[in-house]
């Protein structure tokens, strides 16, 4: 007998909850992010402020990426919490040997901070060419940018006063272990270790060679705790469920990151998440609570929400709707402000949720100032655990 879906669906048809969440759609404020002009930056061909695709925050330091580059940007929040500047640009090609060089597009869609590292993940996706005005021949081409197959981590160096830098290595003065930059071994071929591994999976495998935004394999969310790395997929959505790939990483003798074998005998495990048929656009840990930004798999306009999975269970394969709480509905604006990245900003008043948008509305950007404005939303603490 086929299993029925749970009837307790608090994030589907609860009109009272929808009314309350409608109020939450208004951000507390904005933070203006100011970047250096691209002409003054190495290996950057596109204005950073136009294409911010991911966020991570520690102290006063906001790390972000433009999905058209292979660099990481760091800016510092001022004392008023309304602006962030003092832009520093980190070129990943100086720390890693990238198959497409330091200027090749990495399509970085995931950033996460854990245990003194900034973790960085490319989309690992294929892309379809745009059609010509006259014919569809170019439209048939599906391309692979080899830098997109990146997954790695870079040590964070605490400079004090909430300022953190990315460095190749940290050698501590005490007995704590040192930290070094490391990545999953890369190749020019699209058969990266992660894509090759998942190509054999009965659920994910059929979608590996489809382009992104066409329900093809596409990593857009990253959450890390200890050795455990969660990859949130924009595609594929399988049977209406969004998918998370979980891996426990180790460092090889050659200095590369590699997934360990898990209890299931594989080097990965899958988790299915019911997001009302939508996919994952970003993720973030808040203690043991996993925050998930949802959105459309394709280029469709869609309402976007932030869901919380309390005490995310690594042994639970399927998270039905009743295991999630919808904590925020984001404003829907046709043609712009597509939520792309979330991060937790710790302030004196409590935790706040920082949200950056793809295709930002005109009032969010200023080319003369190289400015991008991101939203700050109130973020409730996770429920207290029973003693």
UniProtKB/TrEMBL annotation:
InterPro entries: DUF3616 (IPR022060). Pfam families: DUF3616. It comes from the Bacteria. Residues 51-369 form the DUF3616 domain. This is DUF3616 domain-containing protein.
